[in-house]
Structures are given as C-alpha cells and as structure tokens.
Amino acid sequence: MSLRVLVLSVGSPKHPGMVESIRDYEVRAGRYFTLESIEVQPGRTGSADPTRVKRDEAEALLRRLPADLESFALTRNGRSIDTRGLADRLERMATYGAAGAAFVIGGAYGLDDTVIEKCRNRLSLSDLTLPHELARLVLAEQLYRAGTLLRGEPYHKGS
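User: That's the sequence. What structure does it adopt?
Assistant: Structure tokens below.
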C-alpha cells in the first residue's frame, strides 16, 4: 500500500522516552504507509492569551496542510473510530486512489476552530483529554496496528 500519511503536529515531544516511543511506532508504521511527520513551532504559552496561541499555531498548521490529502483534525469532540475502522478507512483511500491522509494534532490548548473547520474529518482518539505528545504516540501506534491488520500480520490481537 503506497498511501501517503502525514502527521502534522504542534511542537516536538520533550520527554526522552516519549520521543523514542513515537519514533519507534512511526518507523514501524512507515513499513505500511509513506509516513511523514511535520512539527510546527508551538505558540508562546505562559502568560499569553490561549486564543492567540491557538491562532498562531493554526496559521503554521494550515500553511503545512496539503490540500490534496484527506484531513483529520484530532479533537476530543471528533468521531470515535476503532482500529479496524481506521484500517478500513485507510484501505478504502488507497483502493480508490486518494492521495493520502493528514492527521492534525494541536498544541497544549488544542486546535483552533479554523483548523477544525478546514479539516474534512474530526477524529477522537479517546473520550479522555490527552496531552498532545501522548495523542501523537497513540496515533502512531494505531497507524502501525492498522498497517498490520491490512497485511494480515499478527500484531493486532483484538477482534
């Protein structure tokens, strides 16, 4: 499957174990998809206005979001999908000649509404609020798991 998958996120992971885990799953997922990760600079947090921070991050994200990819905003208000559903969605995209998928992960304050509105899909990884680093790890692992499912490999033990 030569589907392009882009993970577009705000900031880079800070914790060494998280960096290593994300990299590991992104390399694994890269066996199944043409995977690219792009990190944009986070807005200035601290005493800064959260609305302004999200707006600054949105501008950076939207500049890097390719128009030809099926876009997914990762937000807690998004649609829940199980692993099989994600695998099936990616397989349909590849089968019907879609250019690929872009998954967009916001920063500490989440995604600005302009990014959510620009994306054709809204996806929730959990009903829980996840730190953006953890959301990136969960996404990378699920992309890897989806790839193993599509090739009938034994990693996925669920139904």
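The beta strands are 4-10, 34-40, 70-80, 100-105, 121-124.
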